[in-house]
Amino acid sequence: MSITGGTSRTPDGRRAVIGLLRRLNSPEGQAEPYGILAELRTMGDVVRAPWNGYFVTGFDACSQVLRGRNWQAPDFAWQERQDDAKRWDALATREMTSTLARLNAPEHTCQRRSLGNLFDRSTIERLTPDVERHADRLLDELADKLRWGEADFVSTVSEQLPIHTIGSWLGLPPEDYPHILEITHNQVYAQELLPTSSDLAVSAEATVQLRAYFTDLVARRRAEPRHDVLTGWIHTWDALEPDREQADEILYRLTMFVTIASLETTATLLTSMVSLLSAEPGRWEWLRSWPEHIDAAVDEVLRYDPPIHINTRIAAEDTVLGGVPIEKDSMVHVLYGAANHDPRRNPDPGAFDILRGGSHLTFGGGVHYCLGAALAKLEARTLLARMLDRFPALRTVSPPVYAPGWSSGASPRWAWPCEALAARFPELLPGRDARDPGREPHDPGREPHDAGREPRAPEPGARDSVRDARDGTEPARWCRPVRGAERPRHRERGHRGDARRAAGRRRRAGPRGAGAGAQRRRGRLLPGRRPRRVRGLAGGGSGRAGHPGRR
Q1: Is the separation of the CB atoms in 234 and 217 below 8 Å?
Q2: How far apart are CA 342 and CA 45, in angstroms?
């Protein structure tokens, strides 16, 4: 496969890239990012960013960066070499820079080896009964809520399965799960494409709470050892690091990182999986008839709709990528969604095809390959198998609802130094006046970028309405992640009246028990009425028909 160079540093090229970034950071870009990413890819496999960096859009070029040894994580040493090192002083950024995903050799090698192969085949086999038990219990709760009235699929199932899985594995107290979920959601504000100052303030507060919680957890486990993973890590680092204070600091970072890296991305994967598979007529029934393709379905969801979109690497030396000279210390931003939809690697990438047999880069590559990839796939295939069996006729009855905030997610790769860019490039904020970033001017001449396009399957984090035709339960309404009902910037897609009504529904639903921040990803199951069906799975038959085809 060939890879091509990117745009030159010209005013027209810079304006074109800025225009695409504005669209990606808009509600329309949230609902339909892949058309915009395809436009970016037409500029080249390596496209110059408005700052000292490059976007990498082609599959082969992204793979080269992720797996190459001449590309490094943006660690403290790199930040200190920058002209304005204070740009990286946000609390959440500095805290995450000290975690495994931002380390380079030899520190990264030492810490990763101390963990061993976290989720090898034997560990996955031991965890499988626990994941099955958690999934069955959560689906019981979902079915009960559907019978009695309103329910929220995301807060009932897709957010709960990851925290129960990793929580029981690490020995976290179950009563702490709501608190961990809330501060994890709030911490990832700093990972938005272009966070606001209020985003960073929320993230900073959550970062302080994460440190307090996991530092105390390590101290309590030292005082009361158990036969569990964390106690084993304590013994390992007591042998490796004679300084007890330094050992506890490393243990805090590892435990915190492994926990939060297991939550946000997996919850998004689980929700997108059910949404995509129930979005087209016959797809759910076909997979129920051919369960041997469940693993292939999970892989296609990971390709089509990756839970994270961006990962940053630094050139360790002067090099050439895709025909473009890259100077040492320059940032390159790997775009997973663009790479996975590269037609040279995956023909007809906009089609969701379970039998595609394609490839994706969603779990990264090289020394920073996702630690929890096997665990995430275990949770996904277990939940999907259970849902196919218990809810055989899911029906999509309303389109997904989206909220702004193009995020890299709470992922094993905290790689986008966004907080340093938002202040320098206010023109990238959608609908914002560069002279007054807080003002949203009226722009009647601007046409929606996706006007006239064919509707597509839900994008990352999308939530559709679904209906189980077997037992008569009523529709489930699913929403894209909403980071707090009180935050005006994160209103749902549509007219302002629709946004106010949606906010009212969220307020009436009440918090999940963890405060207003828990309103994120709020969706409800409404009894007694059936919304107008937009796309759905027809009938409840489950004959072993042929492959339902691609979108």
Answers
A1: no
A2: 10
Q: How confident is the model at residue 550 (pLDDT cuts 50, 70, 90)?
A: low
Judge whether 395 and 533 are in contact, CB under 8 Å: yes
Q: Which long-range contacts (CB under 8 A, 24 or more apart) does 25-28 make?
A: 25/193, 25/194, 25/404, 25/406, 25/428, 25/429, 25/430, 26/404, 26/430, 26/431, 26/449, 27/402, 27/403, 27/404, 27/430, 27/493, 28/448, 28/449, 28/450, 28/493
For residue 323, give the 3-state DSSP assignment: coil
Of residues 479, 397, 338, the one with CA closest to residue 31: 479
Q: How far is CA 176 from the centre of its chain?
A: 22
- Give the three-state DSSP class for 140: helix
Q: Which two tokens stand for residue 279?
A: 């979005």
Query: End-to-end CA distance of the chain, in Å?
Result: 26
AA letter at 386: R
For residues 369-394, average pLDDT: 93
| pTM score | 0.76
- What's the Rg (C-alpha) of the chain? 23
As given in the structure block, the two tokens for residue 259 are 């926990």
* Average pLDDT, integer, range 56-68: 97
Q: Cβ distance 211 to 95 under 8 Å?
A: yes
- Cα separation, 53 vs 50, whole angstroms: 7
Question: What is the distance between the alpha carbons of residues 74 and 52, in angstroms, rounded to a whole number?
Answer: 13
Q: What is the DSSP string of 277-322?
A: HTSSTTHHHHHHH-GGGHHHHHHHHHHHS-S--EEEEEESSSEEET
> Where is 54: in which H helix or E strand?
strand 53-56
